[in-house]
Amino acid sequence: NKYSKGDFIKELQPIFKESVENFSQGWSEDYQGYPLLLQMISLGILLEVPEAEHQKITAFIYKAHDSTIEAIWKPDNLIFFLMGDTKNKRKGDKPYEKLYEITQLPKLEAEKAIKDYLEVWYSLHQADPWYNTHLRDSGYSGYWAWEVAAVVKVMKLNDSSFKDNPYYPYDMVHWEK
Description:
177 residues; single chain; mainly alpha
């Protein structure tokens, strides 16, 4: 993970553009990857991808939404919020539904709630395949709350009270400044 190694964020944009291209061509009715849907929309927001890439990401997400795949793999309220889609609704699973609930709070309350959420973020993901990968010989690329950072950016929250949280990619929210 180039981000975890400390590479310049601007250098990640062309790599992500290629990822979007591969992602957009990878649809099948056997798709099982809610976390990837969330990661792609989040990174697209954080890297401020051009509209063409953003449309490829959202087109894929809508394919998942309209498909017959299992509900657990479909986009939910958090993804729709990040896409700016106020029409579609689908309750998600923890921890993402909790993060979505934070998006519905007034700014000051949301800032406090995000700080608290980040304090337990890692433990909320015990069922995820990447959990504790730092204890393995390979596969660890850092623990980053991309979706939290995307929410902060979309909501234009003041993140100074949690900018030093080890899971919060502060510079991904502020790199263009």
